[in-house]
């Protein structure tokens, strides 16, 4: 996979091309002082969280008092002040107001930008992932494949027809690559909306297909009449959520899929935590027995 293929899937690249067919969104460049703060090795504190922090410290102090644990002055008096970015905060608030007052954020990774998307109530049963190879729509998968949606199974033909029509009219030959993956939402009126674009390759979840099927010359490639369509066909075949098999915290799953709104901040915190855990393990291993 080439770097250009990943770059072309950035929100800030594809959205201007297809914004008429997607959820209304605004893209805000991150100021250098915000970037510097996010990348700083120190503790990240969000403005407005002081009350919760103080309450948490109070609860901890009460609990510690009951257990007669004595803490040093350094540990009890340390305070961290949240930074203020008034100009950027003002721009963010203006963007939120322009989008109706409710949004969900994303972060653009290669170029530091904050993406605010108008809040929309999307029913998981209306989301589908579409695979395009050589500018041909070859496969469509139910997005939330862990659940059975009766209407998806019963309306397979209508869903395929709607997505194919949307692809041929608005997406085909208009994207910057000929191989890519795009997610759509089909609303209750049958209208299709573009939600996201991802690279065509193993970095993207193939859901009910395998990448061997999608990249090979098998049954999928031989289908000439239309794309292969797969969905969960009954409650018997419902699969558990992948994170449940390993009891992975939902936050970690969001980090790996990029769906968490605060992925960048959480990722930095996670890396720092992993580093600290590794240092503690080394100290324990080197400690005299």
Please, could you describe this protein's structure?
The protein has 289 residues and is of the alpha+beta class. It has three domains: 3-22 and 121-239, D-amino Acid Aminotransferase, Chain A, domain 1; 25-38 and 86-118, no CATH class; 48-81, no CATH class. 42% of the residues lie in helices and 17% in strands. It has helices at 3-7, 11-18, 32-39, 50-66, 73-77, 86-98, 150-154, 156-171, 211-215, 219-222, 242-245, 250-257, 263-286; strands at 25-29, 103-108, 113-118, 127-133, 136-142, 180-186, 192-199, 228-230. The chain has a five-stranded mixed beta sheet. Strands 1-3-2 form a three-stranded antiparallel beta sheet, sandwiched between helices. Residues 49-61, 63-67 and 244-264 have low confidence and may be disordered.
Radius of gyration (CA) equals: 23 Å
Instruction: Provide the CATH top-level class of the largest domain.
Output: Alpha Beta
First-residue to last-residue Cα separation: 50 Å
Q: What is the average of the pLDDT values?
A: 77
Share of residues in helices: 40-55%
Proportion of β residues?
15-25%
Query: Structural class, from helix and strand content?
Result: alpha+beta
InterPro entries: CDC123 (IPR009772)
Family: Belongs to the CDC123 family.
GO cellular component, one term: cytoplasm
Protein name: Translation initiation factor eIF2 assembly protein
